[in-house]
Amino acid sequence: MSDEFFIQPKTYDTSTAYRASVLSNDRMTPEVAHEVRQIILRVPSASFIYVEGQSIGVLAPPPYDFGSDHYMRLYSIASTRSGENGKGAEIAICVRRCFYIDEVSGERYPGKCSNYLCDVRVGDQVRITGPYGRHFIVPRDNTSNLVMVGTGTGIAPFRAFLKHIFEEEAEWKGKVRLFYGAQTGLDLLYMNDLNNDIGHYYDMATFKAFEALSSRPAFDDPSALGNKIEENAAEVWELIQDPKTYVYVAGLRKSSEALDTALSHIAGSKEAWMRRKREIYFDDRWAEHLYD
């Protein structure tokens, strides 16, 4: 299962590329879990300006010196606009090492961009483009409510959101709710023993996090995420009805499907939920970053 955003290069403007230096490449999950790494890059160009929720394109070199273009994948920036640890030229991205099964031969192949990034060393140069995605950003009004739903490396933009609104903004007055799904507790990125950045905000009066772990740890099981949303149906539906609530969904496409299923049950029918979702969407309060 890939957690890279596959984007045809012609879809995005890649005419401006930056050379970013690798400052660190650290594993975020224990050895017994899926390999996910946080990579911190230094982008020295003053023209590279972004806000929370945006992504960069990574241009992985082709496997040969001829006859092939670079591979482009999008990765969400996990840092705030002030930079990783307040260092404006530094950004963090979250990368899961991926593999693919050929549908014809059944052979297993490494994901080109994820394996390239997971293997970079301190001092290496990585070509990046962007930033992209102006739709997936925090509202300016600090009385807005945020409902964030994600799985896997989809947590990266939410880490940036939380660091920004609780560390860099004035007091955030709206409610902030995070529903995060993973196969096991070891896969709860930024919420495990190796890195617990999000745990720093648990004492914030406006913030609550809900962890949804798969009942089948060996499989991606978004139904656990849907169940966790339904367990909190009253609060979720109250927020969904509030015209000041913004909804963000990131990670596996199945996460969005699980959210739709849960909210259809809460709303009483799929039709009722789709009507409400359409209203939120056209009010510019619904945003998604999804991958297959």
Structure report:
With 292 residues, the protein is of the alpha/beta class. It has two domains: 5-132, Translation factors (Elongation Factor Tu (Ef-tu), domain 3, Beta Barrel), CATH 2.40.30.10; 145-291, Rossmann fold. The chain contains six helices and 14 strands. α5 crosses α6. The longest helix has 15 residues, at 253-267. The protein is globular, with a radius of gyration of 19 Å.
Beta-strand residue percentage: 25-35%
Radius of gyration: 19 Å
> Distance between the terminal alpha carbons, to the nearest Å?
7 Å
Count every helix, treating DSSP H or I runs of 4 or more residues as helices: 6
CATH topology descriptor of the largest domain: Rossmann fold
Mean pLDDT: 88
Write the CATH homologous superfamily of the largest domain. Nucleotide-binding domain of ferredoxin-NADP reductase (FNR) module
Biggest sheet details? 7 strands, antiparallel
Strand order within the widest beta sheet? 1-5-4-9-2-3-6
CATH class of the largest domain: Alpha Beta
Total E-strand runs: 14
Total individual domains: 2
Task: Based on Cα principal axes, name the global outline.
Answer: globular
The helix fraction, in percent, is: 10-25%
State the gist of this model.
Helices cover 23% and strands 30% of the residues. It has 292 residues and is of the alpha/beta class. Helix 3 runs parallel beside helix 5 (253-267) and helix 5 crosses helix 6.
